Amino acid sequence: MTKVLITDPIDQKGIDILSQVAQVDQKIGISNSELASIIHDYDALMIRSGTQVTGDIINSSKKLRIIGRAGVGVDNVDVKAATQKGVLVVNSPGGNTIAAAEHTIAMMLALSRNIPIANSSTFLGKWERKKFVGNELFKKKLGVVGLGKIGTHVAKVANALEMDVYGYDPFVSSERAQQLQVRLSELKTLFEESDYVTLHLPRTSETENLVNMKVLKSMKKNAKLINCARGGIIDEEALAEALNNSLIGGAAIDVFAKEPLDSNSPLLKVDKNLILTPHLGASTREAQENVAVDVAEQIRDVLLGLSARTAVNIPGLSPDIMDSLKPHLQLAETMGLLISQLSGGQIQKLEVRLQGEFVQHPSQPLIIASLKGLLSKALGDRINYVNASLEAESRGISVVESKDEARPEFASGSLQLTTFGDNGEHSVAGSIFADGELRIISIDQYPVNVSPSRFMLITRHRDMPGIIGKLGSLLGDHNVNIASMQVGRKIVRGEAVMVLSIDDPIPTNLLESILEVEGITSSDPVTL
Ligand SMILES: NC(=O)C1=CN([C@@H]2O[C@H](COP(=O)(O)OP(=O)(O)OC[C@H]3O[C@@H](n4cnc5c(N)ncnc54)[C@H](O)[C@@H]3O)[C@@H](O)[C@H]2O)C=CC1
Ligand SMILES: O=C(O)CCC(=O)C(=O)O
Q: GO MF terms on file (predicted)?
């Protein structure tokens, strides 16, 4: 029975989708050690930001295929460990954009008009109208750090509020900024000159403590800082100090370096102009339904053997590409598997050459499929599209890609894999014929034309009379049935390659006898 584990609160619509294909267990708030002790039983794990999916948890899994993060940030998942283990990680990149952007705007307005503190005061029976005079957003300078999906929507709403919107994002072009009506600015200037600064970037080693004491000191005395992105981007000690000493005008923070917020946090000791919310950016009914459905559909699809829409750890393999490249991926994987058996020994380099029509396709998926095939004899079902590149890299296999648009020998073009390793250089080329059939069109540069079959035997020999007959009799004596035979040679009576498709695997003692036949120099059984 396929089993899915949910460890954070997920909208019922997502649970209903998963229940169609699996047994769904909900263990909300489970500890890390408990999770590590039960994860071996599950095919899929669905979380929000409350669960830390550590390397230990991932490595304790036995049949886990997918981790679904119902939200954007995957910083609570050890994606590298998941990739190494071949576990797919998916998220919902757009499901909570509006919710997070609206929470940011709400924070800006609440901060500007003292709403939380005025509310508490009024409930205490006070009527402090003078004390809570605020300021307008109209015509104020807003600095948006990170112009992705959320930053962009914040900019759009801020423009509607007639704020002057500035932005910093190293990956956004000036044309795009112009479309968004955002003036690009240097980060330093943005902090120095903005009345409001809002953060909408991921937490990475580069962005950690991006907002530190030096930056806070550079801001205007009445500037306000909003963080609805990720904890750890702001140095919380420094922020508390800056607020306590009125170095800035206020802050509104939704996300923290450690969540739930530690009771010792210096932020809890700040008594002015600070609004804290418990990571509520995505907490709207609409967003929770969006992300739950988005991620549950992807988990369901992957459990049914289909591909995921937004996988975090298989770049370049969207479902559209997977569908349109199906035969090409199958060819690349088959050729990778074939060449690994032809090469034997350690491989140091794989060259992937696309020719003719193949050049039109993205090469990355074909490389991943070739690597999957290449490593699958060694790693069995531990290798998949998720971890193929990483496994190759960790084995010291470098990949070189080349493209050749010249008129191909075969109308549909070809893919050629060449390995360089302990046993020298080997190559296999393949193509896809009009009927969609996969063909191997050369082996070690000898032209052949064979359909890959489950069992094959590839021999190298001197082209001379009698060899084919002797090999045929030897196989017959061992009850190995030959389905087809092809000889590829470059010159008459020179070196040649023989490719046999056989119905049964070759017994080991038969291989030794084959190598005793005069003229045969190598004999490689292949199982595809
Ligand atoms: N508080 C909450 O509940 C929620 C928080 N988030 C968080 O909000 C953040 C933004 O989310 P999205 O807009 O959906 O992501 P996104 O991926 O669409 O945008 C992130 C942007 O940050 C930019 N960026 C990366 N490094 C940068 C740097 N050093 N300086 C400036 N910009 C940089 C990227 O180029 C990108 O444009 C993420 O950290 C996400 O986890 C998202 C949803 C809800
Ligand atoms: O799951 C949540 O509520 C948090 C959402 C979030 O932080 C994200 O999507 O990155």
A: NAD binding; phosphoglycerate dehydrogenase activity
